[in-house]
Structure formats: structure tokens, C-alpha cells
Write a structure and sequence with these properties.
globular; Rossmann fold; alpha/beta; 3-stranded parallel beta sheet; 2 domains
């Protein structure tokens, strides 16, 4: 078994981005790429993600702004914030951190974002272009997964890929990316969800198994084919007396047992998470260079 080390690959990509920022921006007297994040409320996972994004931005020379609002912000006020960032020429791209409070229509907020600044890749325009294999901003986590497979030279063409979970953030877009005609595609993809019958049997046929179910330890060793590639997107906090934070992270996969059976596997933490953040940086760099129009 070998680890698909997302932290290692993300660090390599950040070095590449930092070099590009110096060459194409700093050395030419051009303002650095600027990404903004809108954070509503105090959800711990969201706060952790935004803080990690800020740190990554500093490492590559990006400008990073965070707009923080209480959880009782009105939908109309949040739409005004989106309009402001759409119109701010100094901001190249921005995200509205999800999830949002229940009284806010997330889809309406997403649809208000200018597609050319939608570095999260959630806007219907970017989703539609992704399906048509046109230039667009790809959702950060699916892009991170594809990049990880590419950097480890894992063949996808003709392979049997099973994706567990059909969310519009991970499962659905990654299934489309892997099935389309492209270098990191050409796979035969099965997308499983809550109505799928006999998921363990389907998963056990996968050459590449991508797990985004949101259920801790869902995938057990009997669900994994020998020498399969396993990508665990799940992140769950559980109490721990062994860490300074008082918690540790677990994934959707029973790592200890599954890792004895597969050829490659992502750890949690240190697998998909760092790749998601670095993918956001890649999208922001594209936005700053106006590569997506």
C-alpha cells in the first residue's frame, strides 16, 4: 500500500504557483491574485477551512480577504455582499463558504456570483461548461482528486470507477470528469447513492473507489477489491484525549483495515483536504490571468 499524499502534492503545486505569481505578477509590477471568502456564522469546520485557505494564500503570495457576518444575516444583505464582490475589480475570485444558515437559499446565493469569479466552481454556468468539457472553473474537491490521480500517474482510461455519494460538490462532478474524454478520464463510472442496491457489491468491483458518503467508517475491507485505489473524501471530528485540539479526524473509510488491501489510499487528514485548498488557489490564479471568460 502507498499513500496518496495530498499534502506533499499540494506543497509541490503551491511552490509552482508561487513561482508563477513572482514571474507573472510581482516581477511585472502587477497586483497579486486576490481571493475573498464570505464566512457566515461560526461553524468550526468552515472556520478551519477558511483559516487554512488564508495560510495557503500567504504561502504563495496571494492577497486574501475574509468577510465575516453573523449567522442571522438576512438573505438580502448577503446578496448585497455578493454584488459588492462581483463589482470589486481588485478581487479576482471569491467563495461563499457553505453551509449557510437554514434561512438562506444557498442556490440563490451561488447563482448571484459572477461565473468569472466563481472559483469554487459551483455556479450553473461553470457546472454546465464542465459537463460540455469547455474551459471553466472546476469544483475544488473534484479538481483536487483528478490532480492527485494525475500526479501519481494512476491510469483511469478503461478503469472501473465507483463513486459513493452524488452531491453536487463532489460525487456528481467527479463522476463526470472521470467519464469524459480526457487525459484523466475515459473511465467507466458508477455513481452510487442512497437508493443504490447492494453498494458493498458494487464497490468491491472498483479499480478506483471514491468515497464521499459523509458516513464515518462506511467503507470496510470487504467492500474493496484487492489492489484498488481508494480516495476518501470524508472528514469527521471525533473527541480525542491524545491531541491538543481535543479531537481527531476520521474519514468515510476504515483506513486501518482497508489500507492492508488496496494499492493506494488517501489518508485523513492529509489526503483530499490539502488538494481542495490548492485547487482553489489554481482557480484563483486562472481568474487573475483571465483564462476563464
Amino acid at each position: 500500500m502507498k499513500l496518496l499524499d495530498g499534502k506533499l502534492i499540494a506543497d509541490q503545486i503551491k511552490t509552482e504557483i508561487a513561482t508563477e505569481v513572482k514571474t507573472d505578477f510581482f516581477d511585472k509590477g502587477i497586483d497579486a491574485p486576490h481571493i475573498a471568502a464570505v464566512l457566515v456564522g461560526e461553524d468550526p469546520a468552515s472556520m478551519t477551512y477558511v483559516a487554512a485557505k488564508e495560510k495557503a494564500c500567504r504561502e504563495v503570495g496571494f492577497i486574501s480577504s475574509v468577510y465575516r457576518y453573523p449567522s442571522n444575516i438576512t438573505q438580502e444583505k448577503l446578496l448585497e455582499v455578493v454584488d459588492f464582490l462581483n463589482d470589486d475589480s481588485e478581487v479576482h475570485g471569491f467563495i461563499v463558504q457553505l453551509p449557510l444558515p437554514a434561512h438562506i437559499d444557498e442556490q440563490r446565493i451561488i447563482e448571484r456570483i459572477d461565473p468569472k469569479k466563481d472559483v469554487d466552481g459551483f455556479h450553473p454556468v461553470n457546472i454546465g461548461k464542465m459537463v460540455l468539457n469547455q474551459p471553466c472553473f472546476l469544483s475544488a474537491t473534484p479538481l483536487g482528486i483528478i490532480t492527485l490521480l494525475e500526479r501519481y500517474n494512476i491510469e483511469t482510461a478503461g478503469k472501473n470507477v465507483v463513486v459513493l455519494g452524488r452531491s453536487h460538490i463532489v460525487g456528481t462532478p467527479v463522476s463526470i470528469l472521470l467519464s469524459r474524454k480526457s487525459a484523466a478520464g475515459n473511465a467507466t463510472v458508477t455513481l452510487c447513492h442512497s437508493f443504490s442496491q447492494d453498494i458493498p457489491a458494487i464497490a468491491a468491483q472498483a479499480d478506483i473507489l471514491i468515497v464521499a458518503m459523509g458516513k464515518m467508517g462506511f467503507v470496510t475491507a470487504d467492500m474493496v477489491k484487492k489492489d484498488a485505489v481508494v480516495i476518501d473524501v470524508g472528514v469527521h471530528r471525533i473527541p480525542s484525549t491524545e491531541t491538543k485540539s481535543g479531537f481527531r479526524l476520521k474519514g468515510d473509510v476504515d483506513f486501518d483495515r482497508v489500507s492492508r488491501k488496496c494499492s493506494y489510499i488517501t489518508p485523513v487528514p492529509g489526503g483530499v483536504g490539502p488538494m481542495t485548498i490548492v485547487s482553489l488557489l489554481q482557480n484563483t490564479l486562472k481568474a487573475a490571468k483571465k483564462e476563464i471568460i
